[in-house]
Amino acid sequence: MKKYLFALAWTVLGFFNLYAVENDSITYKLKSELDWSDFKMNPDYSDSSKIYWELTIVTYTKKVDIWFGIIKVESFAGFLRNSSWVKSEFKTDLMLDYVQLKYEIANLYAKRAETEINKKKINAGMTRKISKIIESYIEKMHSTLKLYDVETDFGVNQDMIEKWKNKLINGNIE
Description:
This protein is of the alpha+beta class. The chain is 44% helix and 15% strand. It contains 4 helices and 5 strands. The protein has helices at residues 2-13, 93-120, 127-151, 158-169; strands at 25-27, 51-52, 56-64, 71-80, 85-86. The strands form 2 sheets. The chain has a 3-stranded antiparallel sheet with strand order 1-4-3. The chain has a two-stranded antiparallel sheet with strand order 2-5. Strand 3 (56-64) and strand 4 form a beta hairpin. Helix 1 (2-13) packs across helix 3, helix 2 packs antiparallel against helix 3 (127-151) and helix 2 runs parallel beside helix 4. The longest helix is centred in the middle third of the chain and has 28 residues, at 93-120. The two termini are 23 Å apart.
């Protein structure tokens, strides 16, 4: 629930600084290739996880038609660097490959949300309708990423990571 409230707060605000890499925020628009320096927080060694980060969909207003109020948005995957960590023993090429693919899958869902919002020609004042669309894609994204985690054994199974890469390339991710 905390993840969804965080993601919702991020998307409802909609005005996210896409150019803030030197600060806390990263979006796919600004930085599509991740590296370990993007994970700024010290690891929590009491946590059994190898890595901690929360992906979300960041949406901002690109244009509003002055006559009809129709909004055009742009959406990207995003996360907060200062709240993200990885334990040093897991900073491997395989794990970075696993994390990168998660980021790309998240961006796929962001672009799907963007397409749906822009196709529906929604009035900019209908923020609740826009938020519901974004929320639905965040839920789908999290569901897919959970399946990805299980099938890749949280980044350990290289063959499955490759299969997921092919699924992404071939457009076979629901």
